[in-house]
Fold Ferredoxin--NADP reductase, chloroplastic.
Amino acid sequence: MASATAVTAAVSLSSTKSTSLSVPSSSFNKSFVFSHRRNVSISGKLSIVRAQVTTEAPQKVVKESKKQDEGLVTNKYKPKDPYTGMCLLNTKITGDDAPGETWHMVFSTEGLIPYREGQSIGVIPDGVDKNGKPHKLRLYSIASSALGDFGDSKTVSLCVKRLVYTNDQGEIVKGVCSNFLCDLKPGAPVKITGPVGKEMLMPKDPNATVVMLGTGTGIAPFRSFLWKMFFEKHEDYKFNGLAWLFLGVPTSSSLLYKEEFEKMKEKAPDNFRLDFAVSREQTNAKGEKMYIQTRMAEYASELWELLKKDNTFVYMCGLKGMEKGIDDIMVSLAANDGIDWLEYKRQLKKAEQWNVEVY
Ligand SMILES: Cc1cc2nc3c(=O)[nH]c(=O)nc-3n(C[C@H](O)[C@H](O)[C@H](O)COP(=O)(O)OP(=O)(O)OC[C@H]3O[C@@H](n4cnc5c(N)ncnc54)[C@H](O)[C@@H]3O)c2cc1C
Ligand SMILES: NC(=O)c1ccc[n+]([C@@H]2O[C@H](COP(=O)([O-])OP(=O)(O)OC[C@H]3O[C@@H](n4cnc5c(N)ncnc54)[C@H](OP(=O)(O)O)[C@@H]3O)[C@@H](O)[C@H]2O)c1
């Protein structure tokens, strides 16, 4: 694996705000991405942080909604009139012995898709379906911060798992859009819709505790959060809370963006915690498979204490199955305090503190 080398790109944000980017070159081919210093203008404002920090129960505190943000754009490009970007980079980021392939890809946007961290885009794959109609769009969580991997707000990145499965007839079937994307070559056009989604937007409070629970490609929105928190400098946002990432993958060769996250930990050891759950290689003390919720259970009381604070925000992304597994451990933790987890979760959701995007 390539070693992590810090590179800096300076970015000026309108006339009054400045933002800079300091990132490692890690597992995918960054010579293309981070080879030079850039000075570019970006239109659009970053959010002003007004959230309060208190230790009161979530339902009692009036907070500024992350969804009511001036400049937040949704559905700018619709399926009938998509934006056509260009693939700039596409690299496999899982090892050859990993079960399945995951690719990191960067598309040009010329700044015309003004997305926020936590949003998704739609992709319309080339070609037609079995009825001769154009394919329908598929949604993908954006894996880059709003500044993008090149730091110029002119690109959007995705983290895509190539879907290949055997059907009931024993035939090997390839997922239409994921295979289209994983096979894209630099220079190829790609039809993009969106941006969409408000559920996974970052909290505005820079002192928040942000617990991120991701399985596989569910890491995408968290890479985007973490770049903003730890690799970029924004005049009006300096993360000074705690970011705690739990990532569940099948094998160590499927660990996504590991070098980047380790670099973040080196840069901000007091503000970033990182825990992996490698399901097919690790077990807990009882010999059970190490799923993300199994790893979380090791920190159960600490996590529960964090969840009692009004500035703790939990985000979950990836496989649908993880939601129930995580609920199960929360039920028993809450019960220790005589709290009904499902009711408590409803309140957390209302306060935008429990955010789920699973598929
Ligand atoms: C909000 C959102 C964000 C998403 N973000 C990402 C992301 O960041 N990265 C990512 O990789 N994906 C993401 N997805 C999933 C993505 O949208 C696609 O669903 C995925 O890439 C598969 O699309 P496809 O066109 O390749 O497969 P399709 O051609 O659409 O085939 C999928 C269909 O194949 C069938 N199928 C799938 N697996 C099996 C199986 N094992 N056995 C039998 N039948 C099966 C099912 O009917 C399934 O509906 C996201 C989904 C949502 C809703
Ligand atoms: N926003 C979204 O909705 C969104 C975003 C990104 C991705 N996705 C979707 O999420 C899925 C991620 O798949 P992937 O192939 O990228 O992941 P992957 O590499 O296969 O990793 C998934 C990990 O989760 C484990 N797992 C399986 N069942 C689980 C359960 N019930 N609870 C907790 N962990 C469990 C797997 O373990 P084992 O395999 O060892 O059982 C594996 O370690 C894809 O279907 C993708 O399309 C959705």
